[in-house]
Structures are given as structure tokens and as C-alpha cells.
Amino acid sequence: MDAAIGPLDRARLLAADFAGRAAQYDRDGSFPFENFDRLSEAGLLALPVARGFGGQGAGALELVRVLGLIAQGDAATALVLSMHYIQHYLLTRDDRFPLHLTRKLSAESVRGVALINALRVEPELGSPARGGLPATTASRQVDHWLVSGRKIYSTGAPILKHYLVWAKTDEPDPRVGSFLVPAGLPGTTILESWDHLGQRASGSHDIVFDQVRVPLDHAIDVRAPAEWQSPNAAQNAIHSLFIAAIYDGVARAARSWLVDFLQQRKPANLGAALATLPRAQEALGDIEIRLAVNTRLIETAAAEQDLGGVAVADAHAVKLTVTNNAVEVVQTALSLSSNHGLSRRHPLERHYRDVLCARVHTPQDDSIKLAAGRAALGI
């Protein structure tokens, strides 16, 4: 791909290409390896890598724009990409991450297809965002750690080169932190368990670790559980903004399909395109307004993050509002297109299944509303 064109134009071209394969990956539940080869060739895997490590040093605003475009082509690809982006965005913004590992991960991402994701969710614990210690353990030996446990919803599992595994030590007073585990080490097993309604091509399988040997210097910010009570503001904010951008992208893909449908569909009893009906025009107007609000919210918050940091509560509010708008957009498109929208011949039914996944990403709506209410009451 021509290096002279900017990241957004490269993402736009790739999104159009990805859209042509998205239905097949979704139907098979297979992983879109080809998409990540293309993203690497276009330099987009290294987009958030710091310039000092050979990347492009993109900030939050550029990253949400790229993710939104990629999501219009293939939401599952965008979701995997967002997890990779989060980790690289944080690498140079968190001085608790060892420099030698930052250098290693950055170099690999610049050179080729080398993705990373944080594995935190477990069968018993659920999401650690709601509290509790992980069951996954790291046992310190003389010159290495032994990591054992099971992680679920490991987005991008088939392609990840590194896992950031959230675990507790087996010390008398357990500490908690992340352990950088290279993929493919003895004792690591990917269980192909992912068979969900939406985001079917995201490869969010279970990964089991059985006494996996990890170098001592791959332990990252391991500390007492009480010291984790204060969340990482940058991580919380950027995660919410990336999730918002992805599902806004899904809604925009649904909107584009709907516009074409309304203009081309001419029922015999009407004698004109559905686009001529005031009801259709009003409903489409509602969609346009919701998407305009989404753009303002995402871009304003991302720009604020680049200027020094958006408040976590504000980023969470953006995530809630944008994703709920996105769900409403796709539902409105379905109501206007009737059986046509639900046909697997058309992408709208896939967009609907994908956009519903917005509701399960941390932080979930109830947590966001509860926190906002408590803050208002001073509790």
C-alpha cells in the first residue's frame, strides 16, 4: 500500500476490502488472519507504537478514527486490533512497564504481525473490574515463574504473539499483577470455545496455562491487592473510547446499507422508492442525529485525552451513550427494512448481532450509572 497516503486513507481502503470477506468469516466463525497481514503491510499495527521505538506514535484521536473505519468493514477485526492498540498505547505511558519489554514488544510490532492482548477474565471471577482475586497463579522459582490458570474471552487468541496474564502469586500474602507470557510455550493450550451470537470472527477463545515457564523479568507491576484499588485512568479511558469507536463504526455500516436499501427498494404498491416516505425520512433523520452526537462525543473525548487525559467518568459516559445510540441505530435500520434486514444475504443482520456485543464490554451500563449516581450523592 502506498506509504504516501495517511493512516485514515489506508484504513478506509482496508475496510472496504475487509467488508468483502466479513460475512464468510462470521458464518464460519473462522479467524481473519489475512486482514492482519494487510494491516501490518499498511503499517497500521504499529500505529500507536512510540516514534522512539520505530512506530508512528499515534494519539487517541487518530486511533479511534482508524478503529471506527476498520469496524465499518469488519467489527471482529477492529475488536482484536483495539486490544492490541490499548496495550501499545499504554506501554510508553506507564512507567511501571519494564523498558526492556516495551522495547521488545514495540520492535516486534513494527517488524510484522505481532499482536498482544491482556487476558484478565476467568470462569469463576468474571471480569476483575467488579473486584476479586484471579484464580490464575504465578509461582516463583529460582530463575523463572510458573503460571497456571484459565482465561476466557481471550480476544484474538489464534493470532496473539504475547499474552499479558493477570494473576496472583502463591506467596503467603499474595500479590497481583500481569505476567508477559509469549504464545506457544509448553503448557499453553488454546481451547476453541468461542461460538457467540456476535463478533464471531474475533477468536475470543479460552486459553489454559499449565505450569508455563515465564522469565522472572516478565513480571509486570506485581503488588498487593489493596494497591490496585485505584484504577489506571489512561487504561480505563482509552478502553472505553476504543469500544465506543468500534460500535459506532458498526452502526455506520448499518446506516450505509440502509440508505442504499431505501433508495433502491420500490414496492409495487408504492410505485416509488421507500426513500420517498416521510416515515423513512424521519427514522433516517433520527439515525443521522445519533451518529452526529456519537462523532462529537468520541472525538471531543479523544482529543481531550491527547491534551492530557479525559476524566474516566466522562469516558465511561461516552462509551455508554455511544454504544446505546449504536444499538438504536441498527434496530431502527431493521425496523425499516423488515425481513430484508434479517436475511443473511444482507449484512444488516450481522451488524445487529455485532452491535449487541457492545453491551457486555467493561464497564457495563449498570456499573457506569451506579458510579455516576454515587458521585452525585457524594457516596
TrEMBL record:
Domain of life: Bacteria
SUPFAM superfamilies linked: Acyl-CoA dehydrogenase C-terminal domain-like, Acyl-CoA dehydrogenase NM domain-like
Domain Acyl-CoA dehydrogenase/oxidase C-terminal: 243-360
Occurrences of domain Acyl-CoA dehydrogenase/oxidase N-terminal (ranges): 13-85
Molecular-function GO terms, alphabetical: oxidoreductase activity
CDD domains registered for this protein in UniProt: ACAD (cd00567)
Keywords recorded for this protein, A-Z: FAD, Flavoprotein, Oxidoreductase
Location of the Acyl-CoA oxidase/dehydrogenase middle domain: 122-212
UniProt similarity note: Belongs to the acyl-CoA dehydrogenase family.
Family annotation (PANTHER family): ISOBUTYRYL-COA DEHYDROGENASE (PTHR43831), ISOBUTYRYL-COA DEHYDROGENASE, MITOCHONDRIAL (PTHR43831:SF1)
Name assigned to this protein: Acyl-CoA dehydrogenase family protein
Organism of this sequence: Rhodopseudomonas telluris
